[in-house]
Amino acid sequence: MRGKSYPESIMWNIEERFPPKAIESLAGLGFAVGSTRGVVRVEKYGCGAEFRKGTDDRYLMTIVPTVMLNGQFTRLWDAGYQKFLLTDEGVKLPALAAHLQNLRKFNEELRTALGVPTFYNEALGSVSQVSVYDRVKGRKGDVPDETVGAHSAGGGH
């Protein structure tokens, strides 16, 4: 995730900093919690998130909930026809239904544990960190213009 310019706040629209007690309480709720020099990794169901301690001793989420592969964070990419998991090493793997179900469960439990609200679009399903609008080059509508969208048959309103 480091060195990449992807919007990390898509699934968590927050700037909230969490007190140490909130982060420490996660272990009692079944999350695996590991800490090294102010960086806390929280994992459950094959998914994870990362928090970093700030100068005010409160924690800020620095990696949003995502699927873990071989102990590494991934990014969820929606290619329009399929969701993929992307690794920092450039590996692209199809996201399976089990990955998405576990990510949703992890995300919901972490939000509940930290008291973070869930927004409507997030409650509907998986929210991708990277998206590609699915338009096929050479087909009508591949470049959004007046030909794209709904039009009335008579030309009026």
Structural description of this entry:
- The chain is an alpha+beta fold and 157 residues long.
- It has a domain at 17-121.
- 17% of the residues lie in helices and 29% in strands.
- It has three helices and ten strands.
- It has helices spanning 20-24, 97-114, 120-123, and strands at residues 17-18, 32-36, 39-44, 47-53, 59-69, 72-73, 75-78, 83-86, 92-94, 130-131.
- The strands form two sheets. Strands 1, 2, 3, 4, 5 and 6 form a six-stranded antiparallel β-sheet that branches. A four-stranded mixed β-sheet has the order 9-8-7-10, with no helix packed on it.
- Strand 3 and strand 4 form a beta hairpin.
- The model is unreliable at 1-10 and 148-152 (pLDDT under 50).
Overview in brief:
17% of the residues lie in helices and 29% in strands.
What is the radius of gyration computed over CA atoms, rounded to a whole number of angstroms? Answer: 19 Å
Q: Give the terminus-to-terminus CA distance.
A: 48 Å
Order of helices and strands: EHEEEEEEEEHHE
Average pLDDT for all residues: 79
Helical stretch count? 3
Question: Share of helix among residues?
Answer: 10-25%
Class by alpha and beta content: alpha+beta
Strand % is 25-35%
General form: elongated
The low-confidence runs, each spanning 5 or more residues with pLDDT under 50, are 1-10, 148-152
Q: What is the β-strand count?
A: 10
Largest sheet: 6 strands, antiparallel
Tell me which oligomeric state these chains represent: single chain
